[in-house]
From TrEMBL:
Key words of the record: Cytoplasm, Methyltransferase, rRNA processing, S-adenosyl-L-methionine, Transferase
Alphabetized InterPro entries for the sequence: RsmH, SAM-dep_MeTrfase_MraW_recog, SAM-dependent_MTases_sf
Taxonomy of the source species: Bacteria, Pseudomonadati, Pseudomonadota, Alphaproteobacteria, Hyphomicrobiales
GO molecular function: rRNA (cytosine-N4-)-methyltransferase activity
Origin species: Devosia soli
Name of the protein this chain belongs to: Ribosomal RNA small subunit methyltransferase H
Length: 333
């Protein structure tokens, strides 16, 4: 399959450039006449490519702001595109009326259009309310920042953001909020920069903390795990699941989900052999990262990884978390 000439594509002018698009389409091919769930619809980049390849697409998203993009595709592909509001963690239930489903694609994390909308509060580079809610409902980032005890806040930043200086950051946040609640993105970013400093050429010091807060607000790790097992329940033998993730914590979960035996303790020939659980996914494709040309077009693709695998006929598992390496916030209720 040849590469798309994205610089001349209308997708480049869209609010979100889909990452590893050609690789995702290739992983799910052949697509003509097959039914695919796009569990993280966003601006519809993956859905459009799948539709153009001849697939029937059931798109899912919890963000009300994506409606305009869904309406556009529904008008262009009225017989092959359906949008369902909801979370991809329940994709098996949401897509059940459209079965059989032959493929699922998930693009994990925040979309470019969410980052670019200052009023959504995802970005530390733009002034906006400290919000970060993908569904635009429920607990906000401001609620967490102003409500958690110092130790629990530090543990959250460390577990979900891998922020090594989480305790110092939490200390500065708690001191700052004693005067007045922290309500904006730039206010929080300045507090974090004051706490840990900033070296020229390094990533912004608030990067990991904002990631941690976004994950906590949206329950992203729970969503990911539940979505993976939902896809396992939904897809029959031969179905393909393709997952694009954007940082090591997510990628580790996906990797262990597809191949739970990898990374386990080696078996000794001197001890009774452990019977391995039957494989639900086989073959598991090699992880794919973006090439130089894609990175030149879209710097937001730099940390992305695509993992895909084919469903076997073995019955689905009950969801579990511990063996997948899902981070746990110590001290959380």
């Amino acid at each position: 399959m040849g590469k798309r000439n994205l610089p001349e594509s209308p997708l480049v002018n869209a609010p979100h450039i889909p990452v590893l698009l050609d690789e995702v389409v290739a992983a799910l091919s052949p697509l003509a006449g097959r039914r695919v769930v796009d569990g993280t619809f966003g601006a519809g980049g993956y859905s459009r490519a799948l539709l153009e390849a001849g697939a029937y697409v059931v798109a899912i998203d919890r963000d009300p702001s994506v409606k305009v993009h869904a309406d556009r595709l529904a008008a262009e592909f009225p017989d092959r595109f359906t949008f369902v509001a909801g979370t991809f963690s329940e994709l098996d239930t949401l897509a059940a009326p459209y079965a059989p489903i032959h493929g699922v694609v998930l693009d994990i994390g925040v979309s470019s259009m969410q980052l670019d909308e200052s009023e959504r509060g995802f970005s530390f580079m733009r002034e906006g309310p400290l919000d970060m809610r993908m569904s635009q409902s429920g607990e906000s980032a401001a609620d967490i920042v102003n409500g958690l005890e110092q130790e629990e806040l530090a543990n959250l930043l460390y577990a979900f953001g891998e922020e090594r200086k989480s305790r110092r950051i939490a200390q500065f946040i708690v001191a700052a909020r004693e005067s007045a609640p922290i309500t904006t993105t730039l206010e929080l970013a300045r507090i974090i920069e004051k706490a840990i400093g900033r070296k020229p050429g390094d990533a912004h010091p608030a990067t990991r903390s904002f990631q941690a807060l976004r994950i906590a607000v949206n329950g992203e790790f729970d969503q990911l795990v539940e979505g993976l097992f939902a896809a396992e329940r939904l897809l029959g033998e031969g179905g393909v699941l393709a997952v694009v993730s954007f940082h090591s914590l997510e990628d580790r979960i996906v990797k262990r989900f597809f191949d739970p035996d990898k990374g386990g303790p080696a078996q000794s020939r001197h001890l009774p052999q452990v019977t391995l659980d039957p494989r639900r996914w086989d073959p598991v494709a090699k992880a794919i990262k973006p090439g130089a040309s894609e990175l030149e077009r879209n710097q937001r693709a730099r940390s992305s990884v695509l993992r895909s695998a084919v469903r076997t006929g073995i019955a689905p598992r009950q969801p579990y978390y511990d063996q997948l390496g899902v981070p746990v916030v110590r001290g959380a209720a």
